[in-house]
Design brief:
Structural class: mainly alpha
Number of helices: 10
Radius of gyration: 18 Å
Order of helices and strands: HHHHHHHHHH
Largest sheet: none
Strand content: under 5%
Number of domains: 1
Helix content: 55-70%
Length: 229
C-alpha cells in the first residue's frame, strides 16, 4: 500500500475512533434520551456523571480513554515503518505516527462526525494516547486533577489544570531537574498544541467557573475549607 494512503487511513481511522459517541449511545440506549439535550449539552464523562450518575459517567470515561489507546494501537499495527513525509524530529517514525493518531482521535472526540460535530472536551481521549508517549507527565497531571476536584468539586477545573500540567511538567523536568527526555524540543510543542485544543474546548467551562455558575460535584469535594455553618 502507498505510504501516503496508509497515513490517510490512519488519520481518518483514528478520527472516526475518537468520534465514537460513548455517552450519547449510553444515554439513548439505557435512558431514552440524548445526553446532549441535558446538563451542559456535552457528551463527555463530566456531563454523563452529572446527568446519568457516577457509575455511567465512569463507564463513559473509561470508554473515552480507550478511544485514545485503541487509535494508537491500531495505527501502530497499520504502520509499515515508512513515513511518506520527511521526519525532521528526534523521534522515531513510529512515535510520530502515534502522535498523529492520538491527536486525530482527540479531534474526533471534540468534533464527532456521528453527532453533528458536537462532541466532548477531549481530556479522556487525550489522556489515553498520551499515556503511551509521556506516562510520567500524565501521572502527575492525574494527581493534580484529583486534588483539584477534591478541593473545588469542579471536574472541569481538574481537567483544565491537568491539560496545563502536562507540558508544564515536561518543561520543569527537563529544564529545572535536568531530566534527559528524548525528543524534548519536539514533544513539548506537541503537548502545548494538545493542551491548547483542550483549553479551547473548555472555554465555556472557564467562563462559568470565573462567574461562579459552573456545576459542582459536591460529593467529590472531599476537602473543604472555610467556615462551617
Amino acid at each position: 500500500m502507498d505510504p501516503i494512503i496508509r497515513l490517510i487511513i490512519i488519520i481518518i481511522g483514528s478520527y472516526l475512533i475518537g468520534s465514537f459517541p460513548s455517552a450519547t449511545i449510553i444515554s439513548k440506549r439505557f435512558f431514552g434520551f440524548d445526553i446532549r439535550d441535558k446538563g451542559s449539552g456535552n457528551m463527555g464523562s463530566t456531563n454523563a456523571m452529572r446527568v446519568l450518575g457516577w457509575k455511567w459517567g465512569l463507564l463513559t470515561q473509561v470508554l473515552d480513554i480507550l478511544k485514545g489507546i485503541i487509535a494508537v494501537v491500531i495505527a501502530t499495527q497499520l504502520f509499515n515503518g515508512t513515513l511518506p513525509i520527511s521526519n525532521s524530529t528526534p523521534f522515531e517514525d513510529i512515535t510520530v505516527i502515534k502522535m498523529i493518531a492520538g491527536l486525530s482521535a482527540v479531534l474526533g472526540h471534540i468534533f464527532s462526525a456521528f453527532v453533528n460535530f458536537k462532541g466532548g472536551k477531549g481530556i479522556n481521549t487525550g489522556a489515553g494516547f498520551l499515556l503511551a508517549i509521556a506516562p510520567s507527565e500524565v501521572g502527575i497531571a492525574a494527581i493534580l486533577f484529583i486534588l483539584a476536584v477534591m478541593l473545588s468539586g469542579y471536574i472541569s477545573l481538574g481537567s483544565i489544570i491537568a491539560a496545563i500540567a502536562i507540558p508544564l511538567t515536561l518543561f520543569i523536568r527537563h529544564n529545572v531537574f535536568n531530566v534527559d527526555i528524548p525528543g524534548y524540543h519536539t514533544i513539548v510543542y506537541f503537548m502545548i498544541a494538545v493542551s491548547i485544543i483542550v483549553l479551547l474546548a473548555h472555554k465555556t467551562n472557564i467562563y462559568r467557573i470565573l462567574h461562579g455558575t459552573e456545576s459542582k460535584f459536591a460529593k467529590f469535594q472531599i476537602l473543604k475549607f472555610g467556615n462551617k455553618k
